[in-house]
Amino acid sequence: MFTEENPKRLAQIALVVLLIVGCIAVLWPMIGAVLFAFVVWICTWPLYSEKLLPRLGGRDTLGASLMTLLLVLLTLLPLAFLAGSLASSADNLIDFVRPYVENGLPSAPPAWISGLPLFGADIDSFWHQLASNRAELNALLKQLIAPARQFALALGGIAANGLLQLALVLFVVFFLYRDGAKVSHALYVGAHKLGGELGEEMLEKTRGTVVGVMLGIVGTAAAQGTVAMLGFLIAGIPAAVLLGFATFFLSMIPIGPPLIWGGAAAWLYAQDQTGWAIFMVLYGVLIISSIDNFVKPILMARGAGISILLIALGVLGGVLVFGFIGIFLGPVLLALGHMLFGRWTREENPT
């Protein structure tokens, strides 16, 4: 029956919907950083609330400042080390390339290039053509300048965007630490009002899944970086520590570590160290990559309390749909869906 209350009710619903849409529109450009700030907050909140805050006498602002400073140090120190190592490596690369630019290429390529299957003969012919014609070599270098400049600009843009996102994450997480008790209480109250016991259970499942995924990612990355660095040191690879850090960061993507240890194996082969090159390939396949393929799903599944299949599907699908933050969103969504489906199909025991 149509009453006077119905238009008011519809108007209230419309205003609430518009408000929600407006809030989402405002936060959408920063949604990835905000969600990742929540991920960091959820994973580190027990350390902050149970270890640090009691030692400070419950002073929220001081505790949040110290915790954020700790996160800054944990993120900036490795980045500063990598930047210094990359700068040193760039200087070495320039010193290596400068004689070829100034004096031209040697008359014959290295023997291992000519011996490559399928493409070795073509590369050898092209090398002799460039070495005998300095003008053609200069023309080729000029053609490579524009793509190299575009790549450098794109890489600089990605780095600048990453720093801005990191700064936003740290800015948001400071307020989450400072007002963490209020935020946590509000989340549990809202979950209880929306779904009662089910809402609280879904919130706990979300927290457990996020912590489990973070444990799997960071734990696996640390293990891969450590064993990779040991392998590089054993094989005598230069800048083994830098390559270990690179393996740590690139372990976030499935094909990341093979790019590092595969490049190291190719370098060893180019130095006529065939035995060490074979060792590096076997070490990379059997040890470095096996950690990512077997240990990561087990750590994630054990920490989140769900099956390895859901974790794997959630991570892959989440990355394809949401990007990096999908590593966490995908497993969370599948875990919540699995929990709801289980409650729906659960048979009630007769009283």
UniProtKB/TrEMBL annotation:
Where in the cell?
Cell membrane
Q: How does it sit in the membrane?
A: Multi-pass membrane protein
> Any stretches that span the bilayer, and where are they?
12-42, 62-83, 151-177, 210-234, 241-270, 276-295, 307-336
Q: One GO term of the cellular component aspect?
A: plasma membrane
Keyword Protein biosynthesis in the entry? The reply is: no
Q: Is Cell membrane among the key words of this record?
A: yes
> Which key words are in the record?
Cell membrane, Membrane, Transmembrane, Transmembrane helix, Transport
Main subcellular localization, coarse class? membrane
Give the family from UniProt. Answer: Belongs to the autoinducer-2 exporter (AI-2E) (TC 2.A.86) family.
User: What is this protein's name?
Assistant: Permease
Organism of this sequence: Dechloromonas denitrificans
